[in-house]
């Protein structure tokens, strides 16, 4: 008999900065107790950066815009997908930037690139963009 997969955790938050700590807390609370000491900090940072980017760059500043998060374990990783509601013609593909030392922003995906074992950007089928990042369940080495 095949192993039944875990149902992914799923949330929608208003596309507003107050949602960043709420999203981080929700993701941390969804982790199994035995993984919290090792994954909470890194997954919290990934959540903060990706939700902040989705709010800042992937929303139309409308009151009804929502940022969607999905968290699931698969293939030895915990995967986090953060999706924004931007229309495809309005969306900018997220990419790692290399800001000058004096810049106050622009380092979010540098952190994601450093922390995640793998990450990618995928257009959503109808509207918006998802950034998906994975953290390994077991430390390498």
TrEMBL record:
Coiled coil: none annotated. Keywords: Kinase, Serine/threonine-protein kinase, Transferase. Residues 13-125 form the Histidine kinase/HSP90-like ATPase domain. Transmembrane segments: none annotated. Pfam families: HATPase_c_2. SUPFAM superfamilies: ATPase domain of HSP90 chaperone/DNA topoisomerase II/histidine kinase (SSF55874). InterPro entries: Anti-sigma-factor_SerPK, HATPase_C_sf, HATPase_dom. The keyword Manganese does not apply. GO terms for molecular function: protein serine/threonine kinase activity. The keyword Transferase applies. PANTHER family: ANTI-SIGMA-F FACTOR RSBW, ANTI-SIGMA-F FACTOR RSBW-RELATED. This is Histidine kinase/HSP90-like ATPase domain-containing protein.
């Amino acid at each position: 008999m095949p192993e039944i997969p875990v149902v992914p955790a799923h949330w929608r938050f208003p596309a507003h900065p107050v949602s960043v700590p709420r999203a981080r807390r929700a993701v941390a609370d969804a982790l199994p107790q035995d993984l919290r000491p090792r994954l909470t900090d890194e997954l919290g940072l990934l959540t903060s950066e990706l939700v902040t980017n989705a709010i800042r760059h992937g929303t139309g500043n409308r009151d009804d815009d929502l940022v969607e998060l999905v968290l699931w374990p698969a293939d030895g990783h915990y995967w986090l997908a953060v999706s924004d509601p931007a229309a495809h013609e309005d969306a900018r593909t997220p990419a790692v930037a290399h800001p000058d030392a004096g810049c106050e922003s622009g380092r979010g995906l540098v952190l994601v690139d450093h922390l995640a074992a793998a990450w990618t950007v995928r257009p959503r089928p109808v509207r918006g963009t998802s950034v998906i990042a994975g953290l390994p369940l077991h430390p390498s080495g």
